[in-house]
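Practice problem: predict the structure.
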Amino acid sequence: MSTAAAQPRLVEQVYEAILSEITDGRLPPNARLIQDELAATYGVSRQPVQQALLLLRNHGLVRDAPRRGLVVSPLDVEFVRNLYEVRAVLEGLAARMAAEHGSERAKMEGQALIEGGRAAVESGSVTRQITADMAFHSFLYEISGNPLIGETTAPHWHYLRRVMGEVLRDDDEIPGSIWDEHAAILAAVIAGDEFRNRFGAVIANGQGSMKGQIFRIAHLGYFDFADLFAVVAGLEIILNANGHSVKFGSGVAAVQEIYQAAAVKPETVNA
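Answer:
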């Protein structure tokens, strides 16, 4: 391999190494990023470190600090809110279209992704958990049949990884519960034409009310919209089938609507 060809790959490796340390919490917000130290840690020259740091800065993950050089950026709450409102639409669309067009592939390939996610949780590695989560959502995009969903989301995965790292470290119960939710979504996608009945089971299952789930997610300031909006789609279908005229909004504004609608007791909803 030529030096010219190897250099971009080396920059990518250094980028991934620094981002992993940020998502794992080893490089906390406002931690200084000193090129010589990073180069020594990763066993490379300063040039790929410098280029990787420039990319991280362009992606909003590090920033310039007066008299301190580059530091890890704190999370930008407003940007996260805007990002997840956009992601809400894309993830909800992916889940719906996957149920319509990808049920066979979901049945054949989906369980391996769930098992990989649970294995990542058992490992305790935040980086592995994020990689598994990205693989699951990328699979939904792929089987949705609309390539623009994945292409539109791809430029933002670096920042989403940062957010996911914060969430996964916040509460020991969250990593496992995420994969319970992913498994429920996969089951709904596999069900295909039985979409409505499957979501009835998700909402009525004994792991907690919809209201409790939304409160937990909202309390953390985090939304896994592939899960949330797929369940919202099911909730809309079920309530409308039972004589309620319901159409939830999208993004953060929908949370209060869902929260209130979740007060409907599961036993009164016949899927």
